[in-house]
Structure formats: structure tokens, C-alpha cells
Amino acid sequence: MHPGIYAELNETFYRKRPSLFFVLQLVTLTSWGVDAEARQAFIDRERKFGSFTIGGIQMPDEDEINGFLVAQGVIAFHHAAETALRYYFAHHSGAKSPWLHMSKETSFVKFKRKVENEVKNGFGHDDIARVFYGGTTSKESALDSTEEQFEESVEALGKLLYFAAERYLSESFLYNAAKHGLTAIPASGFSSLHYTSPEGQEFDLSYGYPLTHLHTKDKPQGVESDTGYVTTTSTLFDQDLVVVYILARALDTIWINGRRKHLGQPGRVTMFTNDAVDVTLYGAIESARQLARSMTWELQSILKDGTIPGMHGSLNIQFIPEDWKGATGEPLGMGLWETSLEVRPTDEENAKLEQNAKLPDGQHLLPF
Prior knowledge:
By secondary structure, the protein is an alpha+beta fold. About 50% of the residues lie in helices and about 15% in strands. It has helices at about 5-15, 20-30, 35-45, 60-90, 100-105, 110-120, 125-135, 140, 145-170, 170-180, 235-265, 275-290, 345-355; strands at about 45-50, 50-55, 185, 190-195, 200-210, 210-215, 225-235, 265-270, 290-300, 315, 335-340. The strands form four sheets. It has a five-stranded antiparallel β-sheet with strand order 3-6-7-9-10. A two-stranded antiparallel sheet has the order 1-2. Strands 4-5 form a two-stranded antiparallel sheet. It starts with a helix and ends in a 12-residue tail after the last helix.
């Protein structure tokens, strides 16, 4: 490959922030939260797209809207998580073109193994620091922050990456069912499930609009069943969306740091705090106060003598760390702040080498 093509690829790749897609997606999904009258007026309005005109549609009822939003929340989360992880691995690799690196990552099995390895061994401090900020200290990264702020941001990003990676893996069946074939079926209406202990104390296991899907293994890389399994998952729409938001901020930080390296341009990156990430990951769970994330049962079989054996199932509990102190009531964005990422001599040198490999002015290696 001609060495000059890397500069052209990077100039294209670092042209627009990747977070814009997810921000607009959040705006679209949260627009359903307006009052019913405003929503009806929008639905009734005729819309023109290119040569086509779309008339108003019949307003779905509240249960249908909530079922749609729950499924879209799952899809949005998994899309954002996978994108952030792919950007992370591409920029960690030291590739001359992260864009080209990601385009060659076509094996889902190999990619999944990468994610599994990070979940098993933990995202390394120095790896996180270099991918997001370009160095293992604030000084080395040329960041306008204290070393304490830098260390906390790296720690908080480690929590975020682990959460995104673990859920991306553990709920892959749900995501595939929601996105491919629409086989994650939302509840037909608001539902709730309660448990009463032997002592008479009641607990909310789940409520809302759970998604139910079928699968042949009890869990990814688990045991196959002759009959299969059915799982109902009580997702939290607000948690999905706020995690997408903070993943988008993290994604931009990787992108800005990569742009500095390859194009020699400064930028402003997001610094994270443990409080901000903790509220993002666990605040919605605390607010919902429901114990169960999902429940799985093996589909019923029948024995040779015609009898039906007992039903086998499992319960997956919502996870909150023992040291979680609870949401503080701060608004979204609490604990996130931006700071400048300055261009270093090494960035200037790297960008200059890439530019020097290009063809003379007016000549291009890319056909567009």
C-alpha cells in the first residue's frame, strides 16, 4: 500500500466527531417524552423526504410506544458499546490508520475474544490512559489537569469500559433478538413481578415493559438444550440512554486524541469522575428499586411416559457495588468536564511524517 494513503485516510476519518450519530439518536428517542398533544401533532404532520411524501400515521398507544422505546434502548446501548470498544482496540493497536484497522476487523468471533480477554483480565490503566489521553500521566499527555484528576478519569473510564464490555457480551442474545428479526417481544402492557419472603416481606423483582426472547443456549458460550430457553429481561430505558450519552463522550475523547496524533491538531477532551460514572451505571437501578435484571427458564419438555418434569429456571440480579453510596441528585453531566489537549512535539513529528508521504498538491490516492 502506498504510504501516502494513510494521511488521506486519516484526514477523512478525523473529519467529523463520531458521537454526533449517538447524540442525534438520543434526541430522537427522548422526543417521545413530550406531552401527548405535542406528540400527536408531530405524528399527524405530513413530511417530505426527497421525492416522497409521508402522511400522518395512527398514533400508537402508550404500551406500544414503551415497548418500542425499550427495544430501541437495548439496540442503542449495544451499538454505542461495540463502537466504543472497536475504537478503543483500533487506537490501542498503534495502527497507521485506525479506520483501516477497524475495516479489517471482520471476524465477530475474534473481536468477541478480545472483549472477553479484557473483561477477564481488566482494562489496563496504562492502556486506557494512552488510548484516551495519549500518555500515562497528565504531564505526558499534555493535558490541562492535575495528576489526581487524570488518575480518577482513567479509573472511571475503566469502570465504564468494563460495564459496556460485560453487558455487550452477556446480553448479546437479547441484542440480536431485538435487532435481527424483531424476536425480542415486548410486554403487551405494564407488568410487574413480586416476591414475598417466608417472613412476609415483599420485594419488587421487576416491573415495566420487559423484553422476552428465545435462545438455544442458557447463556452465550453456555449449554445447549434440546428444547431451548426463554428469557425475560427488565431493561432500564433511562439507564441505556444515559450510558449511551457517556459512551459517546468517551468515544469522542478517543477520536480527539487520535486526531492529535495523526493530524497534529489540538482539541478538548472529556475528563470523567467516579461519581459521574457510578451515577450513570447504577443511578437508574437505585431509582427503579427492582431486584431482577432477567429470568431464564428452559422450555418445557415431556418425558417418554408422558409426564411433564419440573421447570428449571435462573434469576439474574441487578448489580450494584457494595460501596455504592447512592445517587446525589445532580443533573446529567455531573462530574464530566472538558479540558484542553495540547499538541506535543511528538504529535507534530508524526503528523509531518504522514503529510510528507502524500503525493504532491493536487494529486490524491483516494478516488473521492
